[in-house]
Design a protein that fits this description.
By secondary structure, the chain is mostly helical. It is 32% helix and 0% strand. Helix 2 packs across helix 3. The N and C termini lie far apart (96 Å).
Length: 118
């Protein structure tokens, strides 16, 4: 019996560019476009956008991008990092002589959950 030779299918040789219409807007660019939009109107925002991004040639595309950028709010400020008040003092570890609750809660000491005996 003759074996059939396996020929893998190769992708097309022509290039397909799928991200040619993408661009990145920094916060500084977005703030300038947003300011122009809110203070002077949509046309000023389009002009500001096209000055900063000369690859956008179509007026309708520039208007849509300017509206999108102007309508987007900047991301919230990053939360403050947690700084320990007492550096070097870690959590309290239970020692063999520790008589507190298993979780170390002050109100749940030995016998706190039992009913009184008479």
């Amino acid at each position: 019996m003759a074996q059939a030779s396996f020929m893998p299918h190769l992708p097309a040789t022509g290039r397909v560019v799928h991200a040619s219409a993408m661009f990145v807007v920094t916060e500084a660019d977005a703030a300038a476009i947003r300011t122009a939009f809110h203070e002077q109107g949509e046309l000023s925002a389009v002009i500001e956008l096209r000055q900063r991004f000369p690859g956008i040639t179509g007026h309708a595309q520039a208007r849509a991008c300017a509206r999108t950028i102007a309508g987007r709010q900047p991301p919230p400020a990053a939360p403050c990092p947690v700084v320990p008040l007492h550096p070097g003092k870690g959590r309290r570890r239970s020692s063999p002589g520790f008589q507190g609750s298993p979780r170390g809660l002050p109100g749940a000491a030995r016998g706190a959950g039992r009913s009184p005996t008479r």
